[in-house]
Task: structure prediction
Amino acid sequence: AQKITQTQPGMFVQEKEAVTLDCTYDTSDPSYGLFWYKQPSSGEMIFLIYQGSYDQQNATEGRYSLNFQKARKSANLVISASQLGDSAMYLCAMREGNFNKFYFGSGTKLNVKP
Amino acid sequence: EAGVTQFPSHSVIEKGQTVTLRCDPISGHDNLYWYRRVMGKEIKFLLHFVKESKQDESGMPNNRFLAERTGGTYSTLKVQPAELEDSGVYFCASSQERARGPNTEAFFGQGTRLTVV
Result:
């Protein structure tokens, strides 16, 4: 079974608007972490935000916030006030318990329109 | 502080040839990971080193792939002989985790784009 599912291969958003990128996950481990990475066309992977399974509050980092709905097993990334520089591939990932490897989704390519 | 660096950034080789990819992790990071993304699919885990030891190599696709990390510093990933389906982007990541748990981010390199023709 797919551990991480990103159902939006591509998204468009108008500059200065907010956008939500979907991510659902599948795990039976009660301890896990959810991550979002940004991958510009240059190829590097930039860490954006982290949410732990035991965290009571949704994570926020500047214009990024994570809408964590544990019962639904979703961890959607919300980008507020989109900027042209936000155009990139966005990858959702998960780590389980004491294991170190990441499981990645297939990514969402976001295009911000001026 | 230098990030994770990978060499080469691109490699085009013929089927049957050998290619060696190199990853230099962030200095002091004991954990080093290899991942790859083949066309149209998600990034998948290949293996994990803790210092020079292979902690988890469950993602290695077959015995044509050999990873080493001599001395616990840089790592190499050799593909011999390369096949067409090995084409993709190979990422390396490193992390310094002082406590076990899922909440430590990994720092990724820019990847090596391998094309086998």
User: Anything to note?
Assistant: The two ends of chain B are 37 Å apart (CA to CA). Chain B has a mean pLDDT of 91. The longest strand of chain B covers residues 88-95. Residues 67 and 77 of chain B are 4 Å apart (CA to CA).
